[in-house]
Write a structure and sequence with these properties.
This protein has 312 residues and is an all-alpha fold. It is 75% helix and 3% strand. It has 10 helices and 3 strands, in the order βααβαααβααααα.
């Protein structure tokens, strides 16, 4: 038998996060609040950038798309995790597992390219300010966006191309709260050493490579910022600190997942929650509170909403 018929397992059992009722309750409350907050925060950023003409610039165009991706990050694993917390039998279908992995890697690939694009945008704005609007033209912004989705789709499809035809005949237990590729491959009823190495090398190389590209980019930018006036330097450093914080929050768990030789299951789960629930919440908080223009625009948007409410 080959293809989809090759697989005898129709669903996978997720062990979840913990068996302690007290911890389950805390995780449920914590995750639910952060999930709602991240959805509201990222949606508010997207709407503010879309409808406020003062924010119609390349930097905010990329930021709005990053918020869209964070909505995806929040929605791929968090709702099912929250729904499953108090369930004794946590299961996910084979198709649901593959779909979850597909979107995790698409979104991850897109976010990597967007973060690189945002670093390039800051480099041009600080190092070549007179040519900023020429270099970061609408065409360039669309190019970055299309490139991000193409890279994300190719990365995810390459990862899954070798997995969907693997034979899964049992066991079918994943010690996690979501489907992740390294753990899923280990359940296949065949020798998967080479495939595990390929998947780890693929995701690990992309994560580490992108992180070092961004690290070098921001070092160059910071060195250039030091040549500016004190006022310009302060504003640029404030923006850069927000970007660098988001980069560290995003790449930290990823690099650990795919490069650490023998990960602890407990630490793996903690970083999984951090990546799925906390990071999408922190991103809008960081960009909102560390960006004066965004704060002013959001206050303006809130005033307009209040005025519309009084009129109606």
């Amino acid at each position: 038998m080959d293809g989809a018929n090759h697989s005898m397992v129709s669903e996978f059992v997720l062990l979840g996060l913990t068996n302690s009722w007290e911890l389950q309750f805390l995780i449920f409350v914590f995750s639910s609040i952060l999930y709602v907050a991240s959805m509201v925060g990222n949606t508010l950023i997207m709407l503010t950038v879309t409808f406020d003409p003062h924010l119609h610039s390349p930097m905010y165009f990329l930021l709005a798309n990053l918020s869209l991706i964070d909505l995806g990050v929040s929605s791929v694993t968090s709702p099912k995790m929250i729904f499953d917390i108090f369930r004794k039998c946590k299961v996910i279908s084979f198709g649901g597992c593959i779909t979850q992995i597909f979107f995790i890697h698409v979104i991850g690939g897109v976010e990597m390219v967007l973060l690189i694009a945002m670093a390039f945008d800051r480099y041009v704005a600080i190092c070549k300010p007179l040519h900023y609007l020429t270099i970061m033209s609408p065409r360039m912004c669309i190019f970055f966006l299309v490139a991000a989705w193409v890279v994300g789709l190719i990365h995810s499809l390459v990862q899954l191309a070798f997995v969907v035809n693997l034979p899964f005949c049992g066991p079918n237990v994943l010690d996690s709260f979501y489907c992740d590729l390294p753990r899923l491959i280990k359940l296949a009823c065949t020798d998967t050493y080479q495939l595990e190495f390929m998947v780890t090398a693929n995701s690990g190389f992309i994560s580490v490579g992108s992180f070092f590209i961004l690290l070098i980019s921001y070092i160059v930018i910071i060195l250039s910022v030091q040549k500016l006036s004190s006022a310009g330097s302060s504003k640029a450093l404030s923006t850069l600190s927000a970007h660098i914080t988001v980069v560290v929050l995003f790449f930290g768990p990823l690099i650990f997942f795919y490069t650490w030789p023998s990960p602890s299951i407990l630490l793996d789960k903690f970083l999984g929650i951090f990546d799925a629930v906390l990071t999408p919440f922190l991103n809008p908080m960081i960009y909102t509170f560390r960006n004066q223009e965004m704060k002013v625009a959001m206050r303006r948007a809130c005033r307009q909403l209040l005025s519309y409410g009084k009129i109606s």
